[in-house]
Design a protein that fits this description.
Blueprint lengths: L10 H12 L3 E3 H14 L9 E3 L2 E3 L1 H12 L3 E3 L3 E4 L10 H14 L4 H11 L16 H7 L7 E6 L5 H10 L4 E4 L13 H10 L3 E4 L16 H12 L6 H14 L1 E6 L8 H13 L3 E3 L1
Parallel strand pairs: 6-9, 6-10, 7-8, 7-9
Antiparallel strand pairs: 1-5, 2-3, 4-5
Helix pairs in contact: 1-4, 2-4, 2-5
């Protein structure tokens, strides 16, 4: 009985398989990450994936997650270093426009492989080398320093992750030179990939950013269920402000972190800080300790 192939429905996964197909169905994990990075940066009309500077250059968590999904669906196989298609013919599953773009991409980059590929990307996109463990083999320290965000100004940042790719969120932390990410959710759990406590903590710490969870600064989830209008939020935040007497030690701790590390970000879900209690916390920090605040 012939096995039914469960092909992907997401355009990004189709593009990933099509590029792998173009390279005879076999690439190292490093090469696939780098080729997808170049394709998204220079050819694709859709931002299939976003990337962060990581231990070996440009890296996408979403791409990594998709590879696991595609392997579970028996479309490809992976080992410690390589990826191999279990079937061929995926190029025909993408649109004519995407086929044209991938063809242009393949013609330009098919002969740049391995260390030459790393060297090329580090030279052309130095920002993505700033967290690399092997950067000294490919790019000078002086160039890296120019692209490595750094500031001595003391600031309290606030950041929400609503509507953001995980990589976009992480890049905002890097670009703002955040030293400590302080999670002010009551329950640090999310259905959105990357933003539950363990995954988020692991990701930021691998980027050299500390993670601290202060659940006492959060709001009980049941108090947020019926929020619909801006007035509902104002009423909730008014009641929340009354609880600061029970949070004095947490606020003092947060201020000590700011004074010690200079660049701290408090994080929660909502994109608009006016609809998030992190804005109320920030206002309290300004009033009590005179800190300067910036919302990402």
């Amino acid at each position: 009985m012939q096995e039914t192939i469960k092909k992907p429905t997401y355009k990004r996964q189709k593009a990933l398989l099509a590029i792998l197909d173009m390279f005879d169905g076999y690439l190292s994990k490093m090469e696939l990450q780098k080729y997808m990075f170049l394709y998204v940066k220079e050819f694709s009309k859709s931002e299939h994936y976003a990337f962060i500077p990581y231990h070996y250059g440009s890296f996408s968590y979403e791409l990594y997650k998709d590879l696991n999904t595609l392997e579970r669906n028996n479309l490809l196989s992976t080992d410690n270093s390589a990826i191999k298609l279990n079937f061929r013919g995926f190029f025909g599953d993408i649109s004519d426009d995407e086929q044209l773009m991938i063809n242009h991409f393949f013609i330009k980059y098919r002969n740049i492989r391995g260390n030459k590929l790393i060297d090329y990307i580090y030279s052309k996109y130095p920002y993505y080398a700033i967290k690399s463990k092997i950067s000294e083999n490919f790019i000078s320290y002086d160039i890296l320093e120019k692209f490595n965000p750094s500031s001595t100004k003391t600031l309290l940042y606030t950041i929400g992750y609503e509507g953001k790719k995980f990589e976009t969120y992480l890049n905002q932390l890097i670009e703002s030179d955040i030293k400590i990410l302080v999670d002010v959710r009551k329950n640090a759990h999310s259905m959105k990939y990357g933003f539950s406590k363990k995954t988020l903590q692991s990701a930021v710490e691998k980027l050299g950013i500390g993670y601290i969870h202060i659940p006492n600064l959060g709001i009980e989830s049941e108090n947020r269920q019926s929020l619909k209008t801006k007035e509902d939020y104002k009423a909730l935040f008014k009641e929340y402000s009354k609880t600061f007497d029970t949070k004095k030690q947490d606020l003092i701790y947060l201020n000590n972190l700011i004074q010690e590390k200079s660049r701290i970000a408090i994080t929660c879900f909502e994109k608009d800080v006016e609809f998030c209690h992190r804005g109320v916390i920030a206002q309290k920090m300004v009033k009590e300790f005179g800190v300067e605040v910036k919302h990402i």
